[in-house]
Each structure stands twice: as C-alpha cells, then as structure tokens.
Design goal:
CATH architecture: Beta Barrel
Shape: globular
Strand content: over 45%
Organism: Roseovarius aquimarinus
Number of helices: 1
CATH class: Mainly Beta
Helix content: under 10%
CATH topology: Porin
Number of strands: 12
Protein name: Porin
Distance between the termini: 38 Å
Largest sheet: 12 strands, antiparallel, barrel
Keywords: Signal
Strand order of the largest sheet: 1-2-3-4-5-6-7-8-9-10-11-12
Radius of gyration: 17 Å
Structural class: mainly beta
C-alpha cells in the first residue's frame, strides 16, 4: 500500500488540482459552516483521528468558530477563535486569534491568512496561504498550509494542499494532500482525500469528511 501511495495521490491530484476557500475569507453575516473529518493513516496500528471545525459570521467584519479534535501524534486540541479582515482589496487578508487548550495546556494560536480568487482555464479557482503559531508553555510551533483549488462544476470542489508544521528551518513534518468535495444535498457535502508524507509524517493516509453549510 505504501509503495502505491505516491502514484495514487499523483493520479488524484492530476484529476483534481484544486483547493477550498480558507481563512482569508470571512463568513457572510448570519451564515455558518461545520465539518467533521476522520483520517486513517497507514502505520503499524492503522491509527485514526478526527476533527470538528465550525465557524459563523456574526457580522461582515467578524467570524467566530471552534476547532476541536486530535492529530496523528495523538495530541488533542480545543480552541475557540475569532477572525477579522485586514484587506479585501485585491488580496484577501485576515487575522485570526484562537485560544484554548492543547495537550501541553493553555494555548494561544494567532495566524494570518492570505488568499485570492483565480480564473484557471475558464474555471473558478482560488489560492490561500494560512500561517499559524501555537504558543504554549512548552514553546512555539509554526504551521503553514498552502492551498490551491478549483470548482470544475457547480457543487464540486477539487483541492490540493501542502502542509508544514514545526520550525521553518527543520519542519516536524511536510505532507501533500489531495481531496474532492461534492454536494450531496443542499448545504451538505462529502469530502474524500488522500495524503502522502514528504518529510517525517505518516507514509499514506485516507480522509473522509462531512461538510454542512447553513
């Protein structure tokens, strides 16, 4: 299975070079989004972990949300966050501040997101760069997610994301993820994705998710 992972992921990405709207965009006032995601990684114990993410637009300049769950290292998180716009001219830029608990204890998670819509061969698309710092008593960890996406037809999103965590000079992990998201009912979408390690991460993983827009 591990030997096939890069080939499978490359096929997925060649069919789906895309990404989903992320932190640079705020939610419209009175609208929300929630997702529940489960990932199974290819290791000796076939470890599974899940995350619950939700956000809501309180007004045009303020989105609030929750980020709960665990990661591939078995660490848990429970964070509430607020997001405000810094720019909507040309580039979308937003600042986010999360607070709550990680395995290390109390934590703050400030971040900056930058994104822009694209026209990719006549298809609507976007790119987004999320940068976050996790501040705990144990120190500071950095995370960067670079996303590229396209919507080939209504109700479908194709996503490619490069994820990095840890110090910039010597990252704890670098991974590549490709996913397809499609609408199955009004406001309800399914996500299926594949991930592969580029540095110090699981060799291969499969992700399933349910999205709900309201």
């Amino acid at each position: 299975m591990q030997s096939r992972a890069p080939l499978i992921l490359a096929l997925c990405l060649s069919l789906a070079p895309a990404g989903a709207a992320a932190g640079a965009w705020l939610r419209a006032e009175g609208t929300g989004f929630a997702s529940w995601t489960v990932k199974v990684q290819d290791d000796e114990s076939a470890t599974a972990y899940s995350t619950l993410f939700a956000e809501y637009g309180l007004n045009p300049d303020l989105t609030v949300g929750l980020d709960l769950g665990s990661d591939e290292e078995g660490e848990h998180k429970a964070l509430a966050f607020v997001r405000v716009p810094l720019s909507r001219e040309g580039l979308h830029v937003a600042f986010e501040l999360g607070a709550g608990a990680l395995d290390e204890g109390a934590a703050l998670r400030p971040g900056i997101s930058v994104g822009k819509g694209l026209d990719l061969a006549g298809l609507g698309g976007w790119w987004n760069l999320d940068t976050r710092a996790e501040l705990t008593q144990g120190g500071t960890e950095l995370a960067i997610d670079a996303t590229l996406g396209v919507a080939p037809w209504e109700g479908t999103k194709l996503i490619t994301q490069l994820q990095q965590g840890g110090p910039l000079a010597d990252p704890d992990f670098i991974r590549l993820e490709g996913a397809a998201v499609w609408q199955v009912a009004p406001g309800r979408l399914l996500e299926v994705g594949l991930t592969t390690a580029l540095k110090d991460s699981e060799d291969f993983g499969v992700k399933f998710g349910i999205w709900h827009e309201f």
